[in-house]
Amino acid sequence: MTIHRTDKKQTHSPASFNMNQELLSICIPTRNRARYLNDLLTAFAKQVEKNQISAEEVAFYISDNASEDETPEVIRQFV
User: Fold this and answer.
1) Which of 5, 37, 40, 4 is CA-nearest to residue 22?
2) Is-above-0.85 flag for pTM?
């Protein structure tokens, strides 16, 4: 499972992503939703494991819109 985080401080070139192997891409825009984001990512991780989907086949793209809570720390736990 790959998690990509984008915000004003950190950007990634599209060339750095290997989209050819992804079966599922999930885009999550967020701002100040750390408590919900942790639950969401945990639930997705359990579903990936339960359905025996290879971690390389799933990519999460999280766009953090200048959160002022623990959102960046929550994201880092899953990277």
Assistant:
1) 4
2) no
